[in-house]
Design brief:
Strand content of chain A: over 45%
Radius of gyration of chain B: 13 Å
Structural class of chain B: mainly beta
Oligomer: heterodimer
Shape of chain B: globular
Number of strands of chain A: 11
Number of helices of chain B: 0
Largest sheet of chain B: 7 strands, mixed
Chain lengths: ~110, ~120
C-alpha cells in the first residue's frame, strides 16, 4: 500500500520567514495530494491540494510543488504569521485506492 | 466554522455505557467518513459510506457500529469500549465518493472521547 513520509516532524520559524514541509510517497499511481492544517482543538482543514497533472499551485502565501518523477511534494508558506502555527499533514491517494494516506504531521511554530 | 457539525464536542463514558456520536453535513456530499485520531498522530480511517451505504470498514472492532440514516447524517454507536479507545473521533465528507475519484475531505471538529 501507499506509504507517505513527512519531514520535519517539528519546525520553528520566526515571523516573516518561510517554512517548507516535505513529503514523499511510494505508490506511483497516486494522483491527488492534499495538505491539511490542524489547529489545537479543531479538525483538519484543507489548505491546498494538487493533482498529478500540475507541477505547482499557489494560493496567496501558500504554494505546493509536485515532482512526480522523484515522488515528492512540498508545502511552502511565505511570510509566516503566528496564526500559521498548527500541525500540518500531507496526504496522497490514487484513484484505485480508497483511503487517503496521511503523513505523520509537522508541528509548525511561528514565533513573533 | 466547519460545514461538518459533530456532537457532542466532548464525551466521557464508562466501559459498560452505550453512547452515540453524531455528524451532519448539508453540502450535498455523497460520501461520509469516520476517522479516529490519537494525540500527535494523523487521522486513521475507520468507515466510509458512499451513497448512504457502507463501502469501507477498516477492520474496526464491532464495539464501534456506524449508521447512515440519510445522506446528511452519520452516526457512530459505541458500546463496551476500552480505555484505549479514548481519542478524537472525526467525521468527514466529500463530494465525490472514493470509488469514483478524488475530491477534498471536509472534516468536522471532532468529538473528544474519554473512556474510563
Amino acid at each position: 500500500g501507499e506509504n507517505v513520509e513527512q519531514h520535519p516532524s517539528t519546525l520553528s520559524v520566526q515571523e516573516g520567514d518561510s517554512a517548507v514541509i516535505k513529503c514523499t510517497y511510494s505508490d506511483s499511481a497516486s494522483n491527488y495530494f492534499p495538505w491539511y492544517k490542524q489547529e489545537l482543538g479543531k479538525g483538519p482543514q484543507l489548505i491546498i491540494d494538487i493533482r498529478s497533472n500540475v507541477g505547482e499551485k499557489k494560493d496567496q502565501r501558500i504554494a505546493v510543488t509536485l515532482n512526480k518523477t522523484a515522488k515528492h511534494f512540498s508545502l511552502h508558506i511565505t511570510e509566516t504569521q503566528p496564526e500559521d502555527s498548527a500541525v500540518y499533514f500531507c496526504a496522497a491517494r490514487a484513484n484505485s485506492g480508497y483511503a487517503l494516506n496521511f503523513g505523520k504531521g509537522t508541528s509548525l511554530l511561528v514565533t513573533p | 466554522d466547519t460545514e461538518v457539525t459533530q456532537t457532542p464536542k466532548h464525551l466521557v463514558m464508562g466501559m459498560t455505557n452505550k453512547k452515540s456520536l453524531k455528524c451532519e453535513q448539508h453540502m450535498g456530499h455523497r460520501a461520509m467518513y469516520w476517522y479516529k485520531q490519537k494525540a500527535k498522530k494523523p487521522p486513521e480511517l475507520m468507515f466510509v459510506y458512499s451513497y448512504e451505504k457502507l463501502s469501507i470498514n477498516e477492520s474496526v472492532p464491532s464495539r464501534f457500529s456506524p449508521e447512515c440514516p440519510n445522506s446528511s447524517l452519520l452516526n457512530l454507536h459505541l458500546h463496551a469500549l476500552q480505555p484505549e479507545d479514548s481519542a478524537l473521533y472525526l467525521c468527514a465528507s466529500s463530494q465525490v465518493v472514493p470509488e469514483q475519484g478524488n475530491s477534498p475531505l471536509h472534516f468536522g471538529n471532532g468529538t473528544r472521547l474519554t473512556v474510563t
